[in-house]
Write a structure and sequence with these properties.
The protein is of the alpha/beta class. It is built from 25 helices and 36 strands. It folds into 7 domains: 105 residues, PriA, 3(prime) DNA-binding domain (GIY-YIG endonuclease, 3-Layer(aba) Sandwich), CATH 3.40.1440.60; 52 residues, no CATH class; 66 residues, no CATH class; 187 residues, Rossmann fold (3-Layer(aba) Sandwich), CATH 3.40.50.300; 165 residues, 3-Layer(aba) Sandwich (Rossmann fold), CATH 3.40.50; 58 residues, no CATH class; 92 residues, 2-Layer Sandwich (Alpha-Beta Plaits), CATH 3.30.70.600. Strand 14, helix 13 and strand 15 form a beta-alpha-beta unit.
Length: 822
């Protein structure tokens, strides 16, 4: 019996709005929402899509293409994920395909790959272009190769124009194939051949091998690892057997050929897992117990609770007790962290209590490892993770029974995704995710974001405050070092005041540790000719190049362009280039000269690129193998070190001068958080803040540890100028290679948006860095009322942008929408 035609709405990982509808051929199994399917897209491309809906309504106005393949027996995306994708797509004004691309590990997305093969002709193409002939000769041998394989093999970087020329001439053909990036890991195991199933047969084999001592030695070693009741079924990892027995692969092959041993391939996990003895959670002090009880009470009436606890108040121990309660209800926990650097310390503490039920998810894992972690969370997995410790992308994992989300250091702007889209905030998305699962959210920090504290003060969130440090540790003593006065009195040593150096020296003499904070990496922010003032700039961006001394290169921190160190002026050709300003690399250099016996290390993006880069440096510092740690804001994010007695903030003014309405809030948060690293184990720490403006309100508030004063002052200003939390912001960014065209497009966009009404728009403006990667930039900022008209206004803005995208006068202009920009 023929069934009625069915159609499938599919989500594709492309930046195009809406779903794509395909017809389901009669021979294919019926998919359900959340399964992966292979579909054609465009003229020749193939994509892995996610089924959104199966229905019988034939689309009007076009012929549907057939769906090619159903890849799964069970959905890889569950119903809660689907709802979260829909919400995020609508709220952050981006296609759901961009959410899909961010949410699913790339190893689960089979993607179309262009392969090239020759039109089999024995005569070489009639051309003098040696590169074309190289490609032709390569394809004659390989027959079928991907574009990447050809480019890598021949060392031709810009190969696409050459292939197009060959395609136009009929010398090559192309085809699209689906490439699978993830394959389960297979390992080879060795066991006894099935025919050898008794002790008598084993003895006969031993006799047969008497004249082959190497084979007998390997066979005997294998048997020595067995118990008498393990003759069948027991296997050993092949590589381990060869390594531990000390015999070669040829000897093993002979035993396999003789059908004495048998080799099998078994799917194994890439995730290293060992037995971890658990020790249980620590006993809470009276202040922590009180806070834990208050959180429980608040959760009775509030979905979200803000835990405002000073640095070193023991918030992590409270988290552990909450997690324990949730696990006893057989529910899952998501523990979000703002920085990969934090995971090694926290995962150790969690696994000491909860063992291997803790999984870790972040970008330092390979694609294949991320696929396996993703699969371990799914409800049909035989051994699912109950706790996931991860960074912002973890909100998209396939939780099926979520009970609690903890957002640690909730104020951090690293929870916000900047590029590429979707430009979501994981803290805010976690509140939505928890609502879908009827779970609770705990936001924890010593320095709440103004928006979160406002939500707590207005009753939308619960609020619990923990103002005592654990073990009665005192808050650090803040010392202000006036840089202006130090220069006048000639008390500056390079970029360090005498006050700071005196405290560093005292700490080193007592075998204590020091953290120096400078929120700029590299050696020097820029170089300048002392004769004419020329500054080396990026070829592709309107920004000066940062000097990195250890690799002797000038680098652009926006597009990645680099050039060898410049020693002569590009304008007057004189050898008078000087480094200006200072980054973490220069601080490391200079402090090493002042204290040559001190062990100095750096924690920044340049030193933590490897998979275990963060972990190695943090463990070395924790184990006192480093005396002075220099870092960017990575050192401010909740790291706990027992022996740090001095923290130096080298340039407080730089943070305060940033042209952003959040600059003062962020400066307070950064300085307070970095200060919190000082003083542990019943010893008061010291924090030296170097500044030209000791009377600045924010500096004084940090000195007094007066968060509420900073909050009220900033809240009053934001209310006056209609900034969050009293409004919603949408930042629009336009880019194009033509400066005049992007300017015209931005003026037209602002003009049309002004006509929508019930909003305020600032701009268009030329940003301080107005060209990146050869694209000129304009920005505009929309302020919207938080009321009921927000969704309607967003749709009108989207329609306006779509209209300009299709306008022939503004062809090629790129538009980026950032909702709730940071």
């Amino acid at each position: 019996m023929n069934r009625e035609p069915l159609f499938v709405d599919v989500i594709l990982p492309v930046p195009v709005k809406g779903f794509f509808t395909y017809e389901l051929p009669a021979g294919l199994p019926l998919p359900v929402p959340g399964m992966r399917v292979v579909v054609p897209f465009g003229k020749k491309k193939l994509y892995t899509g996610i089924v959104f809906l199966v229905h019988a309504k034939k689309p009007e106005g076009y012929e549907t293409k057939p769906l090619l393949q159903v890849l799964d027996e069970f959905p890889v995306v569950n119903k809660w994920q689907m709802r979260l994708w829909e919400w995020a797509s609508d709220y952050y004004m981006c296609p759901v395909g961009e959410i899909y691309k961010a949410a699913i590990p790339s190893g689960l997305r089979l993607e179309s790959e262009t392969n090239v093969y020759p039109t089999f002709s024995e005569t070489a193409p009639a051309t003098e272009d040696e590169r074309v002939l190289q490609i032709w000769r390569f394809l004659q041998k390989q027959e079928l190769s991907s574009i990447t394989e050809i480019s890598n093999a021949l060392g031709i970087s810009n190969i696409l124009p050459l292939l197009k020329k060959m395609l136009d001439k009929g010398w090559i053909q192309i085809q699209e194939d689906l490439k699978q990036y993830y394959r389960p890991k297979q390992s080879k195991f060795i066991g006894l051949a099935p025919r050898i199933d008794t002790l008598e047969k084993i003895e006969k084999i031993r006799e047969l091998l008497a004249k082959a001592p190497k084979q007998q030695e390997l066979f005997n070693y294998f048997l020595s690892q067995l118990k008498t009741d393990q003759l069948s079924g027991k296997t050993f990892l092949k590589s381990q057997l060869l390594d531990e027995s000390g015999t070669g692969a040829a000897t093993l092959k002979t035993l396999l050929d003789k059908n004495i041993l048998k080799e099998t391939e078994v799917e194994v996990s890439r995730l290293t897992e060992r037995h971890i003895p658990t020790s249980g959670s620590n006993t809470l002090n009276q202040h922590q117990q009180k806070a834990l009880g208050q959180i429980g009470e608040q959760f009775l009436s509030k979905e979200v609770v803000l835990l405002h606890g000073v640095t070193s108040s023991g918030k992590t121990e409270i988290y552990i007790h909450l997690i324990d309660k949730v696990l006893k209800q057989n529910k899952q926990v998501l523990y979000l962290l703002p920085e990969i650097a934090l995971t090694s310390q926290i995962v150790q503490r969690l696994r000491n209590v909860f063992g291997n039920s803790v999984g870790v998810y972040h970008s330092k894992f390979s694609d294949a490892e991320r696929v396996e972690i993703y699969q371990r969370i799914q409800e049909n997995h035989k051994k699912p993770y109950q706790i996931i410790l991860g960074v912002r992308s973890s909100v998209f994992l396939p939780f099926s029974n979520l009970g609690l989300i903890i957002v640690d250091e909730e104020h951090e702007n690293t929870y916000k995704q900047f590029d590429p889209a979707p430009r979501y905030n994981a803290r805010d998305l976690s509140v939505v995710l928890a609502g879908l699962h009827q779970a609770k959210v705990l936001l924890g920090t010593a320095t709440p974001s103004i928006e979160s504290y406002f939500n707590a003060q207005s009753g939308r969130y619960g609020l619990v405050e923990l103002m005592q440090r654990h073990q009665e540790i005192q808050l650090p003593k803040i010392i202000l070092a006036d840089v202006r006065k130090a220069y006048k009195k000639k008390e500056m040593h390079s970029h360090f005041t005498a006050t700071l150096l005196a405290n560093v020296e005292e700490a080193l003499e007592k075998k204590e540790q020091v953290i120096l904070f400078q929120n700029r990496r590299g050696f020097s922010p820029y170089m300048e000719c002392a004769s004419c003032g020329w500054i080396p700039t990026c070829k592709f961006c309107n920004v000066s190049l940062t000097y990195h001394k250890n690799i002797s290169k000038l680098m652009c921190h926006y597009c990645g362009y680099s050039t060898d160190g410049v020693y002569r002026c590009g304008h007057c050709n004189r050898p008078h280039l000087e480094t200006k300003g200072f980054g973490t690399e220069k601080v490391e250099d200079e402090i090493s000269l002042i204290y040559p016996d001190a062990r100095v290390a750096r924690l920044d993006l340049d030193t933590t690129r490897g998979k275990y880069g963060h972990e190695t440096i943090i463990n070395d510092f924790q184990n006192q193998h480093i005396d002075i740690l220099i870092g960017t804001q990575m050192v401010s994010k909740g790291l706990d070190f027992d022996h740090v007695s001095v923290v130096g903030i080298l340039n407080a003014d730089n943070m305060l001068r940033f042209p952003d309405f959040r600059a003062y809030e962020r400066s307070y948060q950064l300085m307070a958080q970095v200060s919190g690293r000082a003083g542990r184990k019943n010893k008061q720490g010291k924090v030296v803040i170097q500044t030209n403006d000791t009377g600045h309100a924010i500096i004084q508030q940090v000195m007094q540890n007066n968060y509420k004063s900073m909050y009220q002052q900033q809240l009053d200003e934001r209310q006056r100028f209609f900034y969050p939390p009293f409004s919603r912001l949408i930042k629009l960014t336009l880019k194009h290679r033509d400066n005049v065209l992007v300017n015209q497009a931005s003026l037209e966009l602002v003009k049309q948006i002004q006509q929508i009404g019930n909003l305020e728009i600032l701009g268009p403006t030329i940003p301080p860095i107005n060209r990146i990667q050869n694209l000129f930039i304009r920005t505009a900022l929309i302020k919207l009322d938080r009321g009921n008209q927000l969704t309607k206004a967003k749709h009108r803005i989207t329609e306006t942008i779509d209209g300009l995208k299709n306008h022939p006068s503004f062809k090629g202009v790129q538009y980026m929408v950032d909702v709730d920009p940071m």
